[in-house]
Every structure is written in C-alpha cells, then in structure tokens.
Design a protein that fits this description.
With 327 residues, the protein is mainly α. Helices cover 77% and strands 2% of the residues.
C-alpha cells in the first residue's frame, strides 16, 4: 500500500482535492452570497444566492479528478523508467511495481475517473461534458508517451490540465445555479463573476505550473538529453531555459500586484500575497540566477510548489475579505 500511495503521489492528490473544496466553499460560496434575488412564492425580501450543485455530486467530481490525476502519475512513471534511472537513480515501476501491474492500475483509475465524469455530467444535465474527462485521460496518456518529449508541448499540456482543476468546480456549479434561479427567482441573476474569481486562480496555476515544469526539465537535463527528448533546456540550452523561468516568475509577481491594484486594494491581500506568495517566488528567481546546481534547482522547484499551495490558500483570505466586506 505504501508503494502504491507513493506511485500515485498521494500528497499531490490531496492538494487537488483541497483545491476544489476551497474553490467551492471559500471562493464561489461567499462570492454568490453577495448576489441577492427575489424568490417566487417567498416573502418578497431579497435572498442571497446559495450553492445548488449537490454536495454528493461534488464529491464524485473530486473523485473523478483525483482518479484521472493518479492514473496520469502512474502512466508517467511507466514511460519514464529509463530517464528516471539517470535523473533520480531509482524507479518504482519496473522495480517495486511490475510494469503490467502499473498499466492495470492506470486502466482502473482511468475507467473510474471517466465513468464518474460522465455520471456527474449527466446529473448536471450536460452528459456531453463527460467527454472532457475522456479527453483529459487521453491527454495524460499521450503526454507521458509523446508530448513531454516535444518542445514546450508537454509543459503547456500539464499547465492547462492543472489550471482546469479549479475551473472544473465553477463549470459544474454554474449550470446548477442558472437552472435553479431561472425557475425560482423573478429575475435570473448574473453569476458570471464566479468565473473571474476562479479564473484568477486558474491563471496563477497555469503560469506557475509552466514555470515549474521548465525548472524540472532543467533539473532532468541529463536524462532527457540522453534519450533525445526535446525539452526546453535541451533545445535552447540550460542558460536560456533558466532565463525563461526567471521571466515567467517575474511576470507572475507583477501580475499579482497588478490584479491587486486594479480589483482588490485591501491590505490583507497585499500583506498575504507579499509574504506568502511573492517571497518564495523571489527566492526562486534568486536560486535560478545565482545557484544553477542540481540541488538548488530542486529547491527552486519545491519553492515554486510552495508558492502554488499558498496561492491556493489565498482562497481562505478571499472568504475572509468577502465576509467582512473589505472590498
């Protein structure tokens, strides 16, 4: 069991699940609670909006996402045996877990994920949206089998799929809100604002994941070069790849302050993003500029992951500032 949990990267799966939970209850719920409607047959008083996508269906949505993510980790290790032996000196698939068993787990996890995706899409009234989970399953397979060997393609695929995690929550909540209040309210409320809030988290996830993937490619340069992978550092050189990662990190920092200046203005957000997000990102830039060694690159990658986690945890701050009417 311990080997299996390591194979599916259980800490990362917890992050996926908690990200979706926080998007629903710390972002979407407080945002829509600021929107009021007059309910048909009610007292005539304006009533705040509430979540309408059933919590049990939401759990199945999380299950679908987590299973597909776990299956992606398994198939990635399946195809990366040779390069991982060079880059890390050890592998799970092929040593602790037989290749055939790994493929079996990949198939099981994907079947569960896709089936759960079609089920909640049917429950949401849009069965065709289940195709999204089938496409994601295919993208994760072909990423490991082919895309990650192509210049930038694999990096962008992973970044897009990571950005989809928070977006999935709003994609399934929005139709439920629309259907309920279209029937039960005198006028249908405009709930598009939830796309802007969650979209901000998705954009942050995209750019930080893209940056971290490039840093990891620099770290894995030897194995990727040995087996002919056209990653960013292999094609452009390590120095250029480091410059690209530095620029992306700097752009991320600039975007955080621009968004705060245009939309938010509250001191709590400014203090939080500066201390919890910008500081680790600034250290990433420092490591990339002054410390090009493999150990330092690994540290930069971990710091980027910390910044991603603290970025997600900003959702708790969102709930606080909305509940206290600070913006």
């Amino acid at each position: 069991m311990k080997t299996f949990l390591k194979l599916i990267r259980w800490p990362n799966l917890l992050i996926v699940a908690f990200t979706m939970i926080l998007m629903r209850y710390a972002v979407i719920e407080p945002v829509i609670s600021k929107i009021t409607v007059s309910i048909i047959g009610g007292t005539g008083e304006m009533t705040p909006l509430s979540l309408q996508f059933p919590w049990y269906d939401f759990i199945i949505l999380i299950l679908a996402t987590v299973c597909l993510t776990a299956g992606g980790y398994v198939i990635n290790d399946y195809f990366d045996i040779r390069t991982d032996l060079i880059n890390r000196g050890e592998v799970i698939v092929g040593s602790k877990v037989p290749r055939r068993q790994a493929m079996l787990w990949h198939n099981i996890l994907n079947v569960i994920g896709v089936a759960a995706g079609f089920y909640i899409s049917w429950k949401a009234g849009y069965f065709w949206m289940g195709m999204l989970f089938l496409i994601v399953s295919g993208l994760l397979y072909f990423y490991s089998a082919s895309y990650k060997r192509q210049f930038l393609v694999g990096n962008i695929v992973v970044a897009v799929l990571t950005a989809m995690v928070p977006l999935l929550v709003v994609v399934y909540e929005w139709p439920a809100l629309y259907r309920y209040y279209e029937v039960n309210a005198f006028s249908s409320p405009d709930v598009n604002i939830i796309f802007y809030w969650v979209g901000g988290f998705a954009l942050f996830a995209f750019i930080t994941t893209l940056t971290r993937e490039i840093i990891k490619d620099i770290e894995d340069f030897e194995g990727d070069q040995a087996y002919g992978r056209n990653t960013v550092p292999v094609v452009t050189g390590i120095l250029t790849a480091r410059i690209i990662a530095i620029i992306l990190t700097a752009v991320t920092i600039a975007m955080l302050y621009i968004v705060w200046n245009i939309f938010l203005h509250d001191k709590i957000t400014l203090i939080y993003i500066s201390a919890a997000v910008v500081v680790p990102l600034a250290i990433v830039i420092y490591r990339l500029i002054l410390s090009p060694g493999k150990r330092q690159l690994h540290s930069a990658s971990r710091l980027m992951k910390i910044a991603q986690c603290t970025g997600v945890l900003y959702s708790v701050v969102v709930k606080l500032i909305l509940d206290l009417n600070l913006i």
